Amino acid sequence: MTYPTQPIASHYINGRYVEDTAGDLIQVIYPATGQIIAQVHAATPAVIEQAIASGRAAQAAWAALSGTQRGRVLRRAADLMRAANHDLSVLETYDTGKPYQETSVVDATSGADALEYFGGLAASLTGEHIPLGEDWVYTRREPLGLCVGIGAWNYPTQIACWKGAPALACGNAMIFKPSEVTPLCALKVAEILTQAGLPDGLFNVVQGMGAVGQALVSDTRVAKVSLTGSVPTGRKVYAAAAQGLKHVTLELGGKSPLIIFDDADLENAVSGAILGNFYSSGQVCSNGTRVFVHKAIKDRFLARLTARLQGAVLGDPQDPATSFGPMVSARQLEIAEGYIAQGKAEGARLVCGGARLDRAGFFLPPTVFADVRDDMVIAREEIFGPVMAVLDFEDEAEVLARANDTEFGLAAGVFTRDLARAHRIAAGFEAGTCYINTYNDAPVEAPFGGVKASGLGRENSKAAIEHYSQVKSVYVRMGDLEAPF
Ligand code: NAD
Predict the structure, then answer these.
(1) pLDDT tens digits, residue range 174-187?
(2) Could you give the 3-state DSSP secondary structure of residue 63?
(3) Which stretches within 219-350 are classed as H helix?
(4) Which protein residue has the closest C-alpha to ligand 1 atom 19?
(5) pTM of the model
(6) Which residue among 159, 214, 233, 383 has the greatest number of ligand 1 atoms within 8 angstroms of its CB, and so is best to mutate?
(7) Could you give the CA distance from residue 423 to residue 268 in angstroms, rounded to a whole number?
(8) How far out from the chain centre does Cα 463 lie?
(9) Cα 445–245–224 angle (5° rounding)?
(10) pLDDT (tens digit, 9 = 90+) per residue, 413-447?
(11) Phi/psi at 469 (nearest 5 deg)?
């Protein structure tokens, strides 16, 4: 059977599409209807071997180009991606179910931003000169070699670009394995890089489940792995990479706090809570899902929140008027439903939402629990769905301690008009990415990543360069060399 969204073949290796139907079948489901819209095959050992061999073969010549030459390719890819934004956004919506209203302004566009930013940075990557009297040391910033990127399903285009662009800017090759839930978009990123003039083999895409990721991470020819995924997968990838002492970047899950003080601009705070809980149907790693609201404004906050949630337009995600789409899969919907049942059983008060829609697809409306306590499961575990937990607080020191009382540390936000308090709280947060009077912005210019169980390393910004390159010191003696004998 053929589908309109069916890719030419499952994998993209060495500048062209590659198929091997011996690999396990992966069916791509459109989350808005539950219907199959494409099918691909997981990579077989032969496909993995092709991807590794072609990446390794292409990398040295790419690294030997000047940064300006490498950057030019990436910047051209950024332009091509922007020009194709509509089609890429439609595909992203099929792949993930996120509304076109979001994908048309966030996905290919942020991918293009990463390509443009790292394309611009490539020419400025240098070592340094370290004078030592007559002698001196110079450093060379060198690529790591063959890197592996492994993606989650919530931002398939963006994740491929956030990993691919800095890797390529630094002179590496990359093999990218998308999530098996959303295999379509990364293939388009690879096509665009080829059109932009990227030499064959430098950005390969292979499909598969965890086993394919595991095989890539374990291969001795792979120098680095960057994973976006859950904490349990992060632990497995970290352990496998440790066997080969490989470089690792881990962008993992979270249960981030969002603190709203009684002096906050209420409408802005409600906007922050909506953006931090219901964008992409709540399937965003950095979401501020523990919303601590000062007791003095709790009732007003809940009233405005529920009123504004009435304005969410649920429906066909390809319709530009739709502002809230389905969850990515039946499984993810069931996980969220399980947490909702648990929240009710633990005594949290359901304020709105809570039940799936009676229609095809995996629709769960925005769901808000109030009177949530810190020890409830819905306040401790990442749900990764449109489920907000509202908790009460009265005291600044107390709420900061409670905000930090979690194994995670991806993001955190505060809404207040008190300038000193805002910065005091930001300094006190145990999180890699913090927000003051806003939530979930992720511009490519700013480092993004987590602390504690939320991950290692940083994506975006100049910080990413540190994670895709290494420094070599070259000691130069100018005079004679003395030895003891
Ligand atoms: P997941 O951990 O199930 O899968 C992530 C990827 O890892 C998939 O491509 C999967 O095939 C692969 N994988 C699974 N087992 C593997 C193994 N043993 N070795 C190598 N690869 C393996 O996560 P998911 O369900 O796709 O995504 C949701 C999770 O991702 C959430 O926890 C979310 O918070 C997190 N996430 C984090 C960020 C971030 O930037 N911090 C962004 C998006 C999602």
Answers:
(1) 999 999 999 999 99
(2) helix
(3) 231-243, 266-278, 298-309, 330-345
(4) 214
(5) 0.97
(6) 233
(7) 18
(8) 16
(9) 35
(10) 999 999 999 999 999 999 999 999 999 999 999 99
(11) -145, 165
